[in-house]
Design a protein that fits this description.
There is one protein chain. With 232 residues, the protein is mostly helical. β2 and β3 (74-77) form a beta hairpin. Helices cover 66% and strands 4% of the residues. Strands 1-3-2 form a three-stranded antiparallel β-sheet. α2 (40-47) crosses α3 and α4 (82-106) packs across α6. It folds into two domains: 15-77, Arc Repressor Mutant, subunit A, CATH 1.10.10; 82-216, Four Helix Bundle (Hemerythrin (Met), subunit A), CATH 1.20.120.530. The chain has helices at residues 15-28, 40-47, 51-63, 82-106, 109-127, 131-148, 152-161, 163-173, 178-193, 197-209, 215-221; strands at residues 37-38, 67-70, 74-77.
Length: 232
């Protein structure tokens, strides 16, 4: 039987929205491994829901490049595409540098509280060695910055473009010094709080440029997870 990590359903969240968020979580966090076969029936059964929201989620995820659908053959978790990885990183590098500059001008006291609370939870996740929790808090850290600048739709576009990049980040967390990532987040936050625009931009660029992964090493360690020049 297929085993998935289920997320708590948020207040007012529809079954369709919850199914999408849960299945996406399992894909990005490599619970569903690249190259693995998946079926609507198995996923619906694992989540205890009907096939309809799962089918709708599969269509969305295929459009985002996380699922490959082969008529008469089945549906598979897409392999990691290095070109998509670099596109996702490049998009974030271009957009987040400018957004963090805006944050220095527009960051509210409520957003400061949210960012500080996020950093405290990151510290707790590190102490608990909880990789999936740390990754989720990393994403939330960046989302807060976009939200306070009223750029939520841009963050959603980044999320859609960055799924392959995020899977590599999850892989890299298995061998990354989380303290280094945390210290980069602290530097970004303090620069925003002190309204040091140049320092905030530089800190964000360093953070995104020096993502702790080596694609060559990861491909060597997890060869079956990566797309080859011939495709699957």
């Amino acid at each position: 039987m297929l085993s998935l990590e289920t997320l708590s359903r948020e207040t007012g969240e529809s079954v369709r929205e919850w199914a999408f968020r849960t299945i996406l979580y399992n894909l990005v966090n490599l619970v569903l491994l690249p190259g693995a076969a998946v079926s609507e029936n198995d996923v619906a059964s694992a989540l205890g829901i009907s096939r309809t929201p799962v089918r709708e989620t599969f269509i969305r995820l295929a459009q985002e490049g996380l699922l490959d659908v082969y008529p008469q053959k089945g549906t598979y978790v897409s392999l990691v595409d290095e070109q998509r990885v670099e596109e996702g990183r490049f998009m974030r590098l271009c957009l987040e540098g400018r957004t963090v500059e805006l944050a220095c001008e527009e960051f509210s006291s409520e957003s400061m509280v949210a960012l500080r609370a996020n950093l405290q939870l990151q510290r707790l996740a590190i102490s608990e060695k909880n990789a999936s929790r740390f990754f989720a808090l990393d994403e939330e850290f960046h989302r807060i910055i976009f939200a306070t600048c009223r750029k939520e739709r841009i963050w959603e576009a980044i999320r859609k473009m960055g799924s392959h990049f995020n899977r590599v980040r999850v892989l890299s967390l298995r061998a990354t010094d989380w303290e280094k990532v945390f210290s980069q987040h602290e530097r970004i936050a303090s620069s925003i709080f002190e309204k040091k625009t140049g320092e905030a931009r530089d800190a964000m660029n360093e953070h995104l440029t020096k993502v702790n992964y080596d694609l060559g090493k990861l491909r060597q360690e997890y060869p079956s997870y990566f797309k080859t020049e011939k495709g699957r």
